[in-house]
Amino acid sequence: MRIFGTILAGGQGRRLGGVDKALLRLGGETLLERAVGRLGPQVERLALSANGPEAAYRAAGLAREDAVLPDPPPGDLGPLAGVLAGLDWAGAGGADWLVTAAVDTPFLPCDLVPRLLLAVETAGTAGMAMAASGGRRHPTAALWPVGLRDELAAELAGGLRKLGAFGAARGAALAEFATGPGPDPFFNINTAEDLAAAGAALR
User: Sheet of 67-69: strands edge to edge?
Assistant: First the structure.
């Protein structure tokens, strides 16, 4: 079983003044470095789904051998487009599964991949799985069979933009993660206040 990973970082960062979240610094490292450090050891190969200059991501912590995947045309289609780019890349590389995670989740669990796999095995399906915590689903933190590529492409072309809707329609298995003490493992940074709260949690 071959599992690749894609860090989703194609958002506009509008509530942070249009900043590229991957390049934000938290606790002495970039959010990209934190995501690579947490997801990278769990997968065979890693890619970044992002639309900025590749040199900036290399400087911010992406290894030379990791791929940078821009959104497919016409662009700006939300995280589903990043997942599609990841599935294309993973399929071309011979992977069976793709795990995705958002770059703005600095406390991403270091056991995300085995927990998602366990959720699929427990459900007894070959379908996808997504993380959940505190009564909420986190569809960016998900396990995708590479065979879903064509189905996802068709939904995206038909106007679907929500990861959660795609997963719910396919009965995605849930991997439940405990919360507390400390921040939710899927706490995500959308505002300056969120960034400050994450920094405080590290101290």
Answer: 67-69, 45-49, 3-8, 97-102, 136-145, 129-133, 173-177
DSSP labels for 16-52?
A: GTS--GGG-EETTEEHHHHHHHHHGGGSSEEEEE--S
| 123 residue type, one letter | A
Q: Residue 86: count other Cβ atoms within 10 Å of its Cβ.
A: 27
Tokens 């990791």 correspond to: 66
pLDDT at 112: 98
pLDDT digit string (tens) for 13-39? 666 767 899 999 999 999 999 999 999
| Polymer length of the chain | 203
Question: Quick one: tokens of 194?
Answer: 């969120």
Q: Each residue of 71-125: pLDDT tens digit?
A: 777 666 788 999 999 999 999 999 999 999 999 999 999 999 999 999 999 988 7
Mean pLDDT of the chain: 91
Q: How far is it, in rounded angstroms, from Cα 130 to Cα 175?
A: 6
d(CA 92, CA 36): 21
- Picking from 94, 136, 131, the residue whose alpha carbon sits closest to that of residue 114 is 131
CB 99 within 8 A of CB 142: yes
